[in-house]
Amino acid sequence: MASLPLTALVTVLSLLLYFVLTINVGRARAKYGVPVPQMSGDPNFERVVRVQQNTLEQLILFLPLLWIFSLYVSPLIGAILGGIWIVGRILYAWGYYQAAEKRGPGFAIASLSAMVLLGWSLVQLLVMTVTTAW
Question: Membrane-crossing residues (predicted)?
């Protein structure tokens, strides 16, 4: 339990990242002249919106996995994997802002981190369920 503050810190940092990405959408609206509520226009604006929307979609998977992993497997390893996820999402955004083709490495890093959180959590919970049922 002593390492759960690290999990909480990773949670706050992931939400801070999302907040910054949301601000970037507003900045891109002004820069590329895309009025609210319009969601399309300049391709540069659309990439900024996709980064923000895709990160929101990924947060729905990432945050519960981060906490389940941290509570049932290891808070320290969970925080490390969560930090890797954040780095991956930053690289994803940075690459995607430049060109859609450059988003791959960041997507791969974040996805791999989420898959490890998912797989390891699932195995741990299955083992716990089976051993307590006997």
Answer: 59-87, 107-127
Reference 51, options 75, 82, 28; nearest CA is: 28
Distance CA 10, CA 42 (A): 33
Residue with tokens 């195995």: 123
Asked if 97 and 25 touch (Cβ cutoff 8 Å), the reply is no
Question: How far is Cα 16 from Cα 71, in angstroms, rounded to an integer?
Answer: 22
Q: Which helix (H) or strand (E) is 55 found in, with range? A: helix 43-72
Residues 83 and 26: their CA atoms lie apart, in Å, by 26
> Do 79 and 65 touch, CB atoms closer than 8 A?
no
pLDDT for 1 beyond 60: no
Neighbours of 14 (CB within 10 A): 21
> pLDDT tens digits, residue range 74-87?
999 999 999 999 99
Helix (H, G, I), strand (E, B) or coil at 47: helix
Q: At what angle do helices 43-72 and 4-32 cross, to 10 degrees?
A: 170
